[in-house]
Amino acid sequence: MLEPSMRWFGPDDPVRLAFLRQGGAQTLFSSLHQIPYGEAWPREAIRARREEIEAAGLRWSVVESVPVHEDIKTGGGKLTSLFANYATSLRHLAAEGIRTVVYNFMPVLDWVRTDMAFTLPDGSRSMRYDPVHFAAFDLHALQRPGAVDDHAPEVRDRAADWWNGLDGPARDRFIASIIDVFPGVKWNLTLDDIRAMLARYAGIGEEQLRANLARFLDAVLPVAEECGVRLAIHPDDPPFPVLGLPRIVSTAGQLDAILALADSPSNGLCFCTGSLGARPDNDLPAMASRFAGRIHALHLRSTTLEPDGSFHEASHLEGSTDLVAVLRAFLAARQSAEPVPFRPDHGLVMLDDLEKPEGITPGYSAIGRLKGLAEIRGVLRAIGPR
Fold first, then answer.
1. Exposed e or buried b for every residue in 166-187, given b needs 16+ CB within 10 A?
2. Of 63, 131, 275, 286, which is least packed with CB atoms within 10 Å of its CB?
3. pLDDT interval class at 187 (50, 70, 90)
4. Angle 248-253-258 from CA coordinates, rounded to 5°
């Protein structure tokens, strides 16, 4: 029922296909990162990537992702052509036998961390979100209007102290670690770019952002249904507002609202335990059970939640997320026999990967993910159907 998978960023990924297969993956989550957002994916490019993956003894089962252009999220620009291009990409993917497509609807930044190399007690490295450090970025680097109202006074004071303790190069490295870590692609964004992107969301709240998602789904779901493609929206990361932007994929209630936009098997979820687990009021086993029939892909990882609102990514079977309980609940509730691909989401930098950080995409080192995949496969062998 669950297919062990890995994410692969394409020919430039330092983790080779053979290594992923040796680690136990059967299928892959991959994308054509070279194609600009909003353009249609040529069938020939999809076929070339599929054949490359299959030549290594693997199968391309999930697209992660076909990005949603910012114009679609803000509701402005040439929406008709953007919708048509997205639909064309879905048709071309289906024609090549790839029928699960992950996407997200996060405004401006796909995900946010404040430390890409947080050292754990055993010497391995993780990624971490610290609300004080993020407030320093928001208030002192970005200098976003209205930011002062989004951070508690004690957080603002600590953020100022921390920011003032950084020299110029340290500030530059910190800023880059927040605004230019899109997996698989480098945009070389600047603070002015972020300011311009944020300005486009002026006046857009949760209700309007959800309406823009509904308009997108109205345009592309008929094509997805026609082609047998399952769309799977990824949760917000982190699952709470940042930079004054609305969030619509963070809670069980918000997932309900998205699924209610279209009662279609093509309107589904990518259930990411790491993203949803960064919010302590999310009951992940209950959510995995509740949404089991509409979950088309699984991202499995754990985060360790700290009392001050910080969190860092933990080993897959440690931290604050009980992946065993999540998987048990999902398997018990899932009615369909159709396979669901899962991948270990992110992984610690450990062992000799610690000596080769250059070129490693944050969260996507080889050894930490292989450890996670092995642990999850062991859990599934123990609790899954015989």
1. eeeeeeeebbebbbebebbeee
2. 286
3. confident
4. 55
Instruction: Decide: 313 and 301 in contact? Cβ < 8 Å.
Output: yes
Residue 229 to residue 376: CA distance in whole angstroms: 27
Active site residues: 234, 272, 299, 345-346, 364
Per-position DSSP letters for 303-340, written without gaps between them: EEE-TTS-EEEE-TTSTT--HHHHHHHHHHH----S-E
Domains identified in the chain and CATH numbers: 2-112+201-383 (3.20.20.150), 122-195 (no CATH)
Q: Establish whether the linkage from the previous residue to 264 is cis, with ω within 30° of 0.
A: no
Residue written as tokens 């709240």? 205
Over 90: is that where the pLDDT of 322 sits?
yes
pTM over 0.90: yes
d(CA 217, CA 258): 10
Average pLDDT for 326-330: 97
